[in-house]
Batch of 4 targets.
Target 1
Amino acid sequence: EVQLVESGGGLVQPGGSLRLSCAASGFTFSSLWMSWVRQAPGKGLEWVANIKQDGGEKYYADSVKGRFTISRDNAKNSLYLQMNSLRAEDTAMYYCARDQAFTRDYWGRGTLVTVSS
Amino acid sequence: QSALTQPASVSGSPGQSITMSCIGTSRDVGGYNYVSWYQQFPGKAPKLMIYDVSNRPSGVSSRFSGSKSGNTASLTISGLQAEDEADYYCSSYSSGSTHWLFGGGTKLTVL
């Protein structure tokens, strides 16, 4: 059974940093691209970033480019999102998702990030 | 880069069919057959319902179908059931600087 479990969310002040983690199981993690997608409270979904199997290619939404960094550790079956220079508008539930060809076929339950003073 | 455009809400009665739209541009919906649809219940993670415009993942009811014409993708749910009441999001690959776009979501109400 595919499982994606996010962690690392919490309350952080504007300008602060946070690192999210996603533990994957039930599939060959190293063989698939992975994504982060977020959802602000009461709002729609927004793709944040994705990363190739070997970490050699990474892509970001314009809204987070230069502030967020996606990475992975295939030995630990883990995906990460380093978030710096956080803003109030980054407040959201952050989901880890498995990329299967040109879609996200499995999603975790999410971890909540709140940026507030 | 603008998100894809979805109606805020649609509604239908049990047993009826409904169709919701997802409007993009030639740089996303119209240019690629990489449109997906997701179902989301309050407080839950999204669930993939349709991928590559019209393909259903294993386990998804055949009542759900997808199509595309030009820059507009559509999700049709036939034989509407109370359990279908949820938010639905479309997504597409984009040749723009943000590679993956989502629509703003459509709230489906089963009357």
Note: Chain B touches chain A at residues 1, 3, 32, 34, 36, 38, 44-48, 51-52, 57, 89, 91, 93, 97-105 (CB under 8 Å).
Target 2
Amino acid sequence: QKEVEQDPGPLSVPEGAIVSLNCTYSNSAFQYFMWYRQYSRKGPELLMYTYSSGNKEDGRFTAQVDKSSKYISLFIRDSQPSDSATYLCAMTLPSGSARQLTFGSGTQLTVLP
Amino acid sequence: DGGITQSPKYLFRKEGQNVTLSCEQNLNHDAMYWYRQDPGQGLRLIYYSQIVNDFQKGDIAEGYSVSREKKESFPLTVTSAQKNPTAFYLCASSIWGISQGPNYGYTFGSGTRLTVV
């Protein structure tokens, strides 16, 4: 079993839809959680990060962490064709540990105009 | 502008040949990483380095080698021992240690697509 599970999709939605992307994980020690966006043939770019449980909002994007369920989500409101990309979740251990990110396999999202 | 530069963007390797992928950063980051990305498999860690002249194997280091002679540079050599090297290779860098600020996380390069011909 992988440490981080992410539905690979592909996921297609119409423009303006609310998108929900999710990851589950098995290591309860993970404490920092991130979402990266990767356009085709490009490197990933950091989109959102959260520490421990809770919600964080940035414009049309909301990141949610539920540590009790070992479940993280990224919501995209009013989705746009420019949001079409692969979204990767990532997480890491508390400070003091070897600071490497563990990535999900990515969800491919297409927003149709 | 600060960032990570990977070169070349596309690389073709013949059977039995070693090739080296370049990665340079001007972000003054301590740590650098190499990942391999295959369709449907996410990012898999090849090697990482926390400081100059030191590096550790990741999950799939066999058939690869690295060096870290300068803080800014972390080249990856794909050797002939790597039997299935066709993939998208990503270099990343980060600060090393405690941080909860906006610079937390990795900065990635644009990648090198390696193909065996």
Note: Chain A has a mean pLDDT of 90.
Target 3
Amino acid sequence: AQSVAQPEDQVNVAEGNPLTVKCTYSVSGNPYLFWYVQYPNRGLQFLLKYITGDNLVKGSYGFEAEFNKSQTSFHLKKPSALVSDSALYFCAVRTGTTDSWGKLQFGAGTQVVVTP
Amino acid sequence: KAGVTQTPRYLIKTRGQQVTLSCSPISGHRSVSWYQQTPGQGLQFLFEYFSETQRNKGNFPGRFSGRQFSNSRSEMNVSTLELGDSALYLCASNLGLAGLSSYEQYFGPGTRLTVT
């Protein structure tokens, strides 16, 4: 079965410092991985995805993620965190059928707190 | 282009009642998925519809059902509501076809359902 794990419930970082949110995955076949962010009382916003190609994926709002096949990881990173990055971050893996991109398995989420 | 819209945004129901939630996808998107988000269980996939057909289904009881109309708008219905059905229900849409450049889902703001 496809699954993702986010080992940290919360990550605390000072503004201006690097931010890393961890995600590991377990899939059969090729992994298709996503990061989403959720602000309070809002839906999920897409940040970036890994489908194939370069292991370093660049996304929205200065975020990037590194796909590591040997370590089965897909960690989200931002070189310099902002207070406005404080939110709930979800890693997800596609689990649907061949033609379907509409079924995702989400991790439990990591709350990011950026302090001024 | 307008985003995914969901109505209503908030809903309060009593145990035993039924409820219908509505979702309008991004124009041109043919796949609509539904997710339930709760503090205890996190984000869980309910079902996906594509071209008016259910393409994927999650592990929810038969009280949860959905449908999709010819204009791709979707509704989900929960019958005989239980207290545990209190959650944020998120709808997401994507193009729905393999081989296109866009694989990510776009989420609506959600419907907050409270069952008393």
Note: Chain B has no helices and eleven strands.
Target 4
Amino acid sequence: GAGVSQSPSNKVTEKGKDVELRCDPISGHTALYWYRQSLGQGLEFLIYFQGNSAPDKSGLPSDRFSAERTGGSVSTLTIQRTQQEDSAVYLCASSLASSGSPITDTQYFGPGTRLTVL
Amino acid sequence: AQKVTQAQTEISVVEKEDVTLDCVYETRDTTYYLFWYKQPPSGELVFLIRRNSFDEQNEISGRYSWNFQKSTSSFNFTITASQVVDSAVYFCALRRNTGNQFYFGTGTSLTVIP
């Protein structure tokens, strides 16, 4: 079946502009994660959605970052007034659920969106 | 606080050599989960293994093996008889039993030279 898809694959924007990044999780996966991967760094957790529960936004670096997940499926990560330090690869992952089960909590990652802020 | 350390930033080996990627983690939780992911040049992270904290049995899958030692808080990954296709960045990660966050290390870039 189809994996996690993300669009666009690359985005170049000017400082101060807003950008939207899209994630389409694997069908049936209720948990969705956004991460940021900067050059030479590990994956930085940004936000997590689980079903209809309130999202875990504890990883968002500033109030310029926000995310939505409509209908429990597609998610959009929005960065307002982009800054050069926002340049990174933004990765989305989904899992069946979030629990202590090997079947459900293993994450499957999308190919990422490479964001470059000039 | 949770932390995952992958001290090896880059490793180069010649094809057919064995290589071990180190992962050391920090947590005060008694129940937690450890993962390894592979990120090939194409960029998409690929799940390799998941290990529960209460199961210290080592695991072997083909040329891959994992050595989990709670006493040293390590979860090392060995590739036997490395191949060029093994060239990638490998990430170790920890997930707590509660909460939703995964804590990733900074990755080890492995280059297998033909």
Note: The radius of gyration of chain A is 14 Å.
